[in-house]
């Protein structure tokens, strides 16, 4: 099978197409023929070595996390899926990647694809939908009537996080450029700050939660808009000691991450707020809950641009420009 493989980090980073053997499945796995694979910003960060201390890859490694496709083989212990089922999943932080013609996926990570959306639309969702779901429900424990700030509302995370926050019943503020104001309002944003005209920290106040998708300098500004007792979850960093411990990293890393996150944690303490860094985890049950919302028309997938599998490097370069409205997706097989 054809796969896009990472062969080296940093200055020596090499991403190239390679022919690999089709993966053999374990008893608790399904083999999926990939019809489409979603691109995520981390797909550009990993080859640069930015997550090398956290994510362990055995090079050469197949890249990619999100996929949608059709089950072509099931393991002996699999009960929820059969050959021919249309599915979608995330394989992030596993020893495999989605930029390939076939992927072996644990049953626990798979969900049935909503019948009313395409494989491309489904492939756009797993990482961002699971990230938003876990941040909103587990870390922030967002409740009806609370105010949440979700910056970069027109981006991959923002477009789905706004919708999921509105399903909870929260009041949502976001930032975007002038040309995307209408899009984020359609997705449910209650207050929209055009960052080309205003600084969000001068406009917003009294927020209970922040879903941080920005770098540290911008993240620091969010503490100016918080109400006492609020929660901030960052998807970009800095990582904290609890994150290192949860991943079972060596004893040096909690100390190092504590130092790295010191300024942010002090800012949080000064506002009587809580700060944490999170990594998404694959979860088929949560993805099924997202699928139910999609099938009922309560939320939708937002796709900016689709590239053929052979144009994957071009797609990654486009994504890295940071201008996508929603997600960028690779299409291996036409719907």
From TrEMBL:
Annotated ranges, domain Enoyl reductase (ER): 10-330
Pfam families in the cross-refs: ADH_N (PF08240), ADH_zinc_N_2 (PF13602)
**Keyword Oxidoreductase assigned:** yes
Signal peptide: which range, if any? Answer: none
SUPFAM superfamilies named among the record's database cross-references: GroES-like, NAD(P)-binding Rossmann-fold domains
List UniProt keywords, sorted A-Z.
Answer: Oxidoreductase
Instruction: Give an example GO molecular function.
Output: oxidoreductase activity
Q: What is its EC number?
A: 1.-.-.-
UniProt keyword Oxidoreductase, yes or no: yes
| SMART domains assigned | PKS_ER
Q: What class of enzyme is it?
A: oxidoreductase
UniProt-recorded name of the protein: NADP-dependent oxidoreductase
State the organism of origin. Undibacterium cyanobacteriorum
Q: What is the lineage of its organism?
A: Bacteria, Pseudomonadati, Pseudomonadota, Betaproteobacteria, Burkholderiales
């Amino acid at each position: 099978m054809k796969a896009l493989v990472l062969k080296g980090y940093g200055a020596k980073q090499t991403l190239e197409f390679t022919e690999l053997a089709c993966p053999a499945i374990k008893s608790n796995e399904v083999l999926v023929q990939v019809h489409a694979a979603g691109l995520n910003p981390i797909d550009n960060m990993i080859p640069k070595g930015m997550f090398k201390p956290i994510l362990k890859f055995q090079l050469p490694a197949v890249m990619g996390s999100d996929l949608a496709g059709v089950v072509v083989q099931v393991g002996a212990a699999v009960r929820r899926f059969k050959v021919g089922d249309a599915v979608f999943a995330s394989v992030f932080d596993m020893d495999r990647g989605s930029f390939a013609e076939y992927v072996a996926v644990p049953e626990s990570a798979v969900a049935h694809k909503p019948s009313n959306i395409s494989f491309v639309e489904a492939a756009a969702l797993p990482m961002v939908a699971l990230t938003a779901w876990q941040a909103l429900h587990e870390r922030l424990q967002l409740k009806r009537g609370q105010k949440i700030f979700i910056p970069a509302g027109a981006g991959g995370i923002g477009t789905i996080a706004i919708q999921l926050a509105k399903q909870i019943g929260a009041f949502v503020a976001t930032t975007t450029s002038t040309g995307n104001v209408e899009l984020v309002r359609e997705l449910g944003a209650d207050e929209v700050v055009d960052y080309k005209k205003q600084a969000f920290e001068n406009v917003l106040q009294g927020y209970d939660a922040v879903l941080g998708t920005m770098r540290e300098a911008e993240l620091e500004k969010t503490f100016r808009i918080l109400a006492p007792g609020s929660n901030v979850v960052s998807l970009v960093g800095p990582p904290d000691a609890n994150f290192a411990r949860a991943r079972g990293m060596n004893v040096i890393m909690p100390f190092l991450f504590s130092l790295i996150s010191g300024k942010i944690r002090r800012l949080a303490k000064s506002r009587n707020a809580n700060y944490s860094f999170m990594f998404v985890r694959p979860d088929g049950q949560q993805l099924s809950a997202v699928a139910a919302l999609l099938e009922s028309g309560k939320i939708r997938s937002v796709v900016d641009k689709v590239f053929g599998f052979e144009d994957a490097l071009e797609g990654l370069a486009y994504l890295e420009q940071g201008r996508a409205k929603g997600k960028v997706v690779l299409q291996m097989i036409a719907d």
